[in-house]
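Reply to dn_fold:

You asked what the input looked like. This is it:
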Amino acid sequence: SLRHWTSNHDEIHQIYNALLYNNGFTQEYLDHPSAVSILIISIAIKIAHFISYLDFSSINHFNNSKNIETDLNKLFFVSRVAYAFLSLFFCLLVYYFIKIVSKNNFTSFLLTIIFIFSTGFISGANIVASELPAAFLLFFSLYFLLKFIIENENEDIYLYLFFFLAFVSIIQKVQTFFIIIPSILCVFYFLKKKRDLKIRNLNINYTKKIFYIILFFVLGLIFLKSLIAYGDLSSTLFLISNYLILNFIMFLYIKF
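and this is what came back:
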C-alpha cells in the first residue's frame, strides 16, 4: 500500500499550486514561490494522468474525486518520484563537477558517495520541499561557470547558462541569493589553487547590442512575472537588484 500523504513534512502548497497551475488558475501562498518545483510536479502529475495512474491532473478534477484520501496518497507519491529523479540527476551532476576539477574517477566517485550519504542531501531528497531543486539549480549554474572558465569553446553559451540558472535558483528559493556570491568566490579560489588547470585570461568581445538585448529581456521577464502578475513591488526590486549585482561581479572578474 502507498505511504500516507501525512507521513512526511512535505510542502503541500507545492502540490496544491501544481494542480492550480494545470488548471490555469492563479497560484496561492507566494511567500515561498518554489516556481521550478511546482512546474516539475505539474509535469509529473500530467504524466501520471496520461499513463492512467491518476484520474485527475488539475484542481477541478481533484475536487470531484470520489476517494480523496487515496488520490492524495497517489498525488504525493508522484511528487516524491519526481523528486527522486531530480535527486539522481543531482548526484550525476556532482560527480561530473568533481571530475572536471580533480580529473580522477575514484576521487569523484568517493566524494559523490559522501555527498549522497550527507545529512542535507538525504533529508532534502526524502521530502517535497523547495531546498533540493534550489540547490540543484545553483550547483548546475556553478557547473557552467566552471566550464566557462576552463574551456575555450562555447564560452558565451556557458556564461548565459550560468546567469540563467543562478537567476532561476533565486526564483525557486529567494534565500539562495545569499549563497550565490560566496559560491562563485569559492569556485574561483579553488581553481586558482589547482595548478593543473590553466585558467585563461577572459577576453570576450561582447557587443553592446547583445548585452543590452539580454539585459532588458531578463529585466522585462522579471517585471512581467513579479510586478504585473503578482503586483509585488518589493519582490520586483529585490530580483532586479540581485540580477544586476551578479552581472556586475562577473564584469569585475572579466575586466580585472
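DSSP finds eleven helices and no strands in the chain.
Hope that clears it up.
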